[in-house]
Each structure stands twice: as C-alpha cells, then as structure tokens.
Amino acid sequence: MGDDFCGIARTLTWTAVAKEGLAMDIAAKLSALPNARPLLGVWDAWERSPAPEFVLLAALSSDRRYAFRLNTKDSYDAELCRAVLEFVREREGEVIGRPEPLITLAGFSWPGREFDVVGRVGPEAHRLFYEELDLHDVVFGVFPGCSAEVSGAESVDQAAERYGRMLKASDMNRSPSPYVLVRFDNPRTGAGTIGEQPVFISPDYLAHELRLLEGVRGAYLELWNHRNQQWHVRWDGLWHVTCGARELRLSAEEVATWRPR
Questions:
Q1: Listed residue (52, 24, 21, 59) closest to 38, CA to CA
Q2: What is the DSSP code string of 97-164?
Q3: What Cα–Cα distance (Å) separates residue 215 from each residue in 76, 185, 247?
Q4: pLDDT for 4-20, tens place per residue?
C-alpha cells in the first residue's frame, strides 16, 4: 500500500507541475511578444503597442491557465482598460465557464462612457492569436460594451461577425452598436435577405429599409432585438408592428424613428 500511495503522490505532483508548466508557457509567450511590458497596477498582465495606433493588453486568469485580451485602437485609456481587466478577473468563472461564444457581464460602468457591461468572446469566435493555436485556444477577448449590443444567443458565426466587424470593440470612445437582426423582402426595390437566414444591420439601415417598405403590399420585415424578441413589420395602408400579443399601428413619421425596446 505504501508503494501505491507513493506512486499516486508522484502522479499528482507531476500533474501539478505539468499544469504549472503549461501556465508558465502562457505567461512566457505573452511576456515575450514584441514590445510587451508589464501592465502597471495589474498583476500577471502585459501591454504592447505593435503600431502607434494600437495598444493590446492581456492578463492571466487566477489559475494562470487562461488569458483575457483587450484591444484598443486610437483610444487607449489606461484606467479604463485596467478596470475592464480587473472586472473580468472578478467574474472569471463566467468568462471561462459559460459556453456561449459571445456574452455580456452586467454591472460595469465608466464615467463619461455609455458602457454598462463587459463583453466576452470565446476562442471559437475570435482571431486574436490565430497564428498561434495553442495560445489562441486559451485566450478570451474582452471589451467594454453596452447591454443592447449582444443577445447571448449568437451562433459562432454571428458572434465572430458582431465582434470582428460590427461592434468596433477596440474603440474605447465608441457609441453603442445595437443588436439588429433582420429578415426582409421588398418586391418594389428588390432589396431583401436571401433565403431564411437573417442578417445583422445597423439601426440607420433599418430605418432606411422601413421607409422604403411604405406602400408596398406583400413586403415584410422581421426583426430580432438583443432580448431575442421577434418583431413583424408589414404595411397595408398603415404600418403594423407586432411582437407576440403586442401590436402597434404607426404613421410613416413614427415608423422612421421607431426602435424596438
């Protein structure tokens, strides 16, 4: 029994060393990136500037097995960035453990900004370290955001599109980019989505297409907001906007400024 116990102890010790070795590799890789330097005021964190307009930051999780990365472009705010990374570490169980490719963490705010959440994108939906797959797979992208930007039900492709193209998540001075997912058809203009797959558009483009639907019988627009509420819009002499049991009748002026809540 003594030999068995010693064998188990050696196995456990080796496993702990192996895990620590993996964590040390993450830290070593991050700290060895070109121009990387320790991030003042945040332990196990680094910042680097690969080009004058970019400042990229990364911080390890408490167990040093994962990293959280925040990118900035032409908008670096050291205090804001440190606050985001510290907030993420306080909620790292959700950041690492939740399965959705794109989520928000409520409870964050910053003076002078409209941010009210911190967003997190998983490795399957970002390209932050796509050239170093071993590092890529343990890195979560994080960014200050707004609750109306993310539904939490995005597919991997939708999460990649929102984070990579639409949110401008590296701009610390940005305005909110509300979640607007639509499927529509306008027989008069020929504009519309293809097949059954909805697409993301901007609120301004939504207002534009709604105005063009006026007077077109057979035209329709379906809209999903960040709460995953589905709205149906059609015109038959007046605008009809329905969501479940709710129905609104709007004028052309009202529909031009209407936003689902």
A1: 59
A2: H---SEEEEES---TTS---EEEEE-GGG--TTTT-HHHHTTEEEEEEE-GGG--S---HHHHHHIII
A3: 48, 13, 19
A4: 433 333 333 333 333 44
